[in-house]
Amino acid sequence: MSDRELTVRIASSVGSFDRDEWNALGGNDNPFVAHEFLTAMEDSGSVGPGTGWESAPIAITDDAGRLLAAMPSYAKGHSQGEYVFDHSWADAWHRAGGRYYPKLQIAAPFTPATGPRLLLSDESLATHLLKGAEAVCLQNTMSSAHATFIEPAQLPLFEDAGWLLRSDIQFHWFNRGYASFEDFLGALSSRKRKDLRKERSSAVEGLTIRHLTGGDIREEHWDAFWRFYQDTGARKWGHPYLTREAFSLLGARMGDRIVLILAYDGAEPIAGALNFVGKDALYGRYWGCTREVRFLHFELCYYQAIDAAIARGLGRVEAGAQGGHKLARGYEPVQTWSAHWIADPGFRAAVADFLEREREGVASDQLYLGSRTPFRKND
Asked: Average pLDDT of the chain?
């Protein structure tokens, strides 16, 4: 395919693209780059004017107008809702007299879950897509472009284009052919098995746990979860990122890819956890409660997620950003990756030096954490 047949352009929204064409590039496997998820963010006002997330997807089409490649990208006026922290970079650049914002963010909004960031019908188009992102930055006086939570298979595409790689650690649970939660517990040390059983028993005492998906999720369930989400969002971020309408749109557009886990005290829902289903992973996203119950957070977010993954034959659970407490509950340290393009050569060199030193620390941390997992040690 020659360059003359290609058009690289920036659009005003993911909603301006055909759903099936967009999803054929990757959205059928990963829920967070699906047309349904990204347009729910747009149509609900969770991204858009006043949010600091302005939708700016970059796409490649052929001379017949067919969509060949795309990336979900956003013009950002701040660094909130990204979970890969660059505030120190922004401060340093401002102190040096530069302007860090706006920047270009290539990501699923508010979602620290790994996935493709370059949606490609042909891998050879990656270079064109990334050059397009760089051109958007230069033409709009953006300081930089940042692709976060990139699936490992795509890292060479960014590295070959000269982008700087950054790593961090999350905790994921891996399904090693377990037939049940008890089967998984059998892989743990005796003490840890007892601890987890006690936690589960204590957490659910007097409560009923329900898993809802598809048409079983009604507006009353979203109303309850919205209350939970607001409480957590207010404590963690100052204000919730998603609007109430976002949850209704997600349920309507991709309810079969959602598992909403609710804890009931009688007829009253008191806590909940929202999960999304991918091709080979369950992604835990949001949690909240209106009543504190010891260990209920672990039960809904980690143990019930494991139950759901095993029942669906999924290979792993990604339970969100941070959280060293996940380690004791069978979630293992995994490196996550981002890629960064910096327009100014001097600033780029400083960031590259920082990242080289940071990667050494992250790799050391992963080795240490990996030695602290609760699994039985081989003789």
From this structure: 94
